Amino acid sequence: MTDQKIADRFNILGAKIDALIRVTWWIMGLIGAGLIIPLLTLIIHQILKL
To answer: In Å, what is the CA distance from 13 to each residue of 20, 28, 42?
Structure first.
């Protein structure tokens, strides 16, 4: 009985950590896209300007 409760709590905690990791990757992806796309645009613009 007690072992099952402990296992259930670890499963819930694991699910919360997985959800947090997913959100973190989404945020990192959005920030990365917000930096990489303008940088690539600037580089291409400078190359075509020459």
So the answer is: 11, 22, 44
